[in-house]
Hints:
Layout (H helix, E strand, L loop, with lengths): L3 E6 L13 H16 L3 E6 L7 H6 L4 H25 L4 E5 L8 E2 L2 H9 L3 E5 L9 H12 L3 E6 L5 E2 L11 E2 L1 E2 L1 H7 L6 H9 L4 E5 L5 H6 L6 E3 L1
Amino acid sequence: MYKRVLLKLSGEALSANGNSFDPEVLKKLAGELKKVHDTGTEVAIVCGGGNFIRGKMAEQLGIERVQADYMGMLATVINALAIQSALETAGVETRVQTAIDMPKVAEPFIYRRAIRHLEKGRIVIFGGGLGSPYFSTDTCAALRASEIGADVILMAKNGVDGVYSADPKKDPAAVKFDRLTYMDLLSKGLQVLDSTTTSMCMDNHMTIIVFNMNEDGNILKAVSGETIGTVIQ
């Protein structure tokens, strides 16, 4: 069983219909995370904001890239607060830390403080991405996982149970990979991670497990070291 994990959630994973977030999805997620927390594993979370807005989506509306990325960062803070509320309702103590200072809403990200919270048994939720445009929340997950010394990044997908050679929803011949290296991602052209995230994980020898979060118990299985999804090393 891993001692310290970072869970990367997409914004869409918090929603039943792709927009805003669903209270029942949040309640189920909190229940799954409480089971992991009760094992003694230290948990940190990075969430995306795609259920509200994505940088590329905002660009299509005529909003320039930097402004669009900041809008996306604020969306991740909304999701972080929603996850915090669901977890504390389930009886799990949490802290939200943001890369953009907003002291009335959450703590600023300070890595030593984040580690101290984890050691005290609190789940730490990182919002606001990296606080800078042009970086994805996947890159944020890779950096935060490296900073806090996480054993693994658990990349929870909405309805996708791993990495495939092609989109399994469009190509019935798509093959699922059980294990990959970061060089495999680059050589096969698999669009699982952006190039910045791939390089950061490879340089820091970080392991990623890509799995389907919609199946009950999958987060606990991944933390326990069971073989699910796709392992990237």
